[in-house]
Design a protein that fits this description.
By secondary structure, the chain is mainly alpha-helical. It has helices at about 10-15, 25-40, 45-60, 60-65.
């Protein structure tokens, strides 16, 4: 199951430097880019959380990655 957009895990994964080595390459690349964008423009956090959730919803392999967050 994909967590709701209000779930704190979305914010946590984009605002900290947690290790992503267990996630798939595609998920790691996306999260790295989103973290950089959020660091440069913190006001975009909500939109970036939505982008990450949409990615997970469209890519079944990423659901397992989210379970590790």
């Amino acid at each position: 199951m994909i967590p709701d957009l209000n779930d704190p895990r979305w914010k946590r994964v984009l605002t900290n430097d947690s290790d992503l080595s267990s996630a798939s390459l595609a998920t790691r690349i996306l999260i790295t880019r989103l973290r950089r964008e959020v660091a440069d423009a913190p006001a975009t956090l909500s939109a970036k959380m939505g982008e990450l959730r949409d990615f997970v919803a469209k890519n079944s392999f990423a659901v397992a990655d989210v379970a590790k967050f």
